[in-house]
Amino acid sequence: KWYEQNRSQDTLANLIEASARLANPNTGNNAGGVGSSSASPKKKRPKAKRAGSNSLFHHHHQKEEMRIAVHIAGILARQGYIIKLCRALMLYGAPTHRLEEYLSMSARVLEIEGQFLYLPGCMVISFDDTSTHTTEVRIVRTIQGIDLGKLKDVHQVYKEVMHDVIGVEEGTERIENIIAAREKFHQWTRVLIFGLTSATAAPFSFKARFIDLPLAFCFGCLVGTLQLIVAPKSNMYSNVFEVSATVIVSFMGRAFGSISNSNLFCFSAITQGGIVMLLPGYSVLCSALELQARAIVPGSIRIVYAIIYSLLLGFGITVGASLWGIFDRNATSRAQCSDPMSPYVAFAFVPLFIICISILYQAKWRQMPVMVVIAFSGYIVNYFSSVRFVASPQIANTLGALCVGVLANLYSRIRHGVAAATLIPAIFVQVPGGLAATGGLLSGLRTADMLTNSNSTETPTETTHAMSTVVFDVAASMIQIAIGIAVGLFLSALLIYPLGKRRSGLFSF
Fold first, then answer.
1. Assigned domain for 20 exists
2. Which of 146, 162, 180 is the last residue of a domain?
C-alpha cells in the first residue's frame, strides 16, 4: 500500500523551507536545513602566532643555558684529564721534581687556570675561576711506584694531547685503560727475577765468585717473596718488612759465610747481593734532584725518609750479623771476598742485571735494547773513573750519571723516546757499586764484631760511639752517591736541552 511506504524526506524538507521563507523573508538562502544550521555553530578563524618579546627572551635564554652547559662540560672534562694524568704520572715513576711543570704546561695548553703543589705521595691541585672568583681544590693521593712500560704509554698520551693530536676525552679514556690494564709479568715471575737480579748484581758490584751466585739467588728470591707476596697481604708486617728482611739475609749470610773457616762462601757478596733491591738509591736520588731543583718541601721530606730508611738497613745488618755471632764465636768477619773473579768477566753480568731490572719494573721488550746500551755505557764510565779516582767515588758516580744522562737525552731528542724510562735502569746500575765502594753496608759487620767480641776493657762510651758512627755510614754513603748522580743528570740535561722545551715539559731526570 502507498501508506506503508517511506515518506519522501525531500518533499517534507522543501515544505518546511517554503514555510520558513514566507514567515521570514530575510533568511534568504541560508535558511535551508534548520536542523543542520542549529546543530553546527560557525567556526572561528584560527589566530596567527605572533613572536612576542617574552618568547624571544625565552628562546635567547635557552640558547645561553645550552652554551654555558657545553662550556662547563668542556672545563670539567679538561680538569678530569689533568687529574687522571697526575695520578698516572705518580703511579708509574715520572720524575718527581718535574711533576708540577708537566701539569702546569698541560693546564696552560688546555686553557685551565690551575696551581699545583707536590708532596711525596700526594698532589694538591687548585682549579681557579676568575670570572666567579671561586676555587676548587682536589687532592690526588696514590702510592708511587715504577712501571716503565706504562710510563711510556702515559707519556705518549701526554704528548698527543699537548700537540692537539687527540682530545681530552680520548686522552682520559686511554689513561683509564692504561691504569686498568693488568701487569705485564706475574708476581711469582717477578720473585724469580728478584733472585736473578741479586745473582747478577753480586759479581760486578760486590766482587762475588761463581760459587756465591746460587746463595745470592736464593736470598734475592726470599726478599722478593717477602716484598711482593707477604707484605701486601699484611699491613702489620709491611711496617717491619725492610728490617726483618735485612736481619734474615744478614743472619743467614754470615752463617753460610762462616762455613769451612770462611773459605767457601763470601759473606759480604751474598749479603749485599741479597738486599740489593732494598737499597733506597732511587728515593735518595729523587730527593737530591728535588732539592737541587729548589723543590724544598718534597725534597726535605723525602731525604729525611731516605736517611731513616738507610739507618734501618744498617741496623738490620748489625742485628743479623750479631745474632749469628752469639751462636758462633768464630763467625766470619771478612769484609772482602778472597780470590774474586776478574772485573772484565764481571762485565758480562751487567747487561743481564739491566734486563732483570727492566723485567722487574715491567718494561716493554722493545725498550730493553736501548736501556741495556745506555746503562752499560754508564757502568763502563763509572768503573774506569772509580779506578782513576779511588779516594772520591762520588766523582765516578757524577761522570757515570753524566754519560747515561747525555745518551738518554740524545735518544729522546733524536728518536723521540722517553728519557726518564730509559734512565731508571741505568740509575739502579750506578747505586750498588757506589755503595760498595764507600763500604757503607758492611759497616754493620764491624759493629757486630764489637758487640759479640766485646770485653771488659772496652768502655761503654767507646762502644756506643763506634756503633753510632757505623750506623750513620750507610745513610751518609747513600746521600753522597745520590748527590753525585743528581749533579751528573742535571749537567746532561743542560748540555742536550740548554733552552729547555717550549711546549711540553722535559721528560727526563
1. no
2. 180
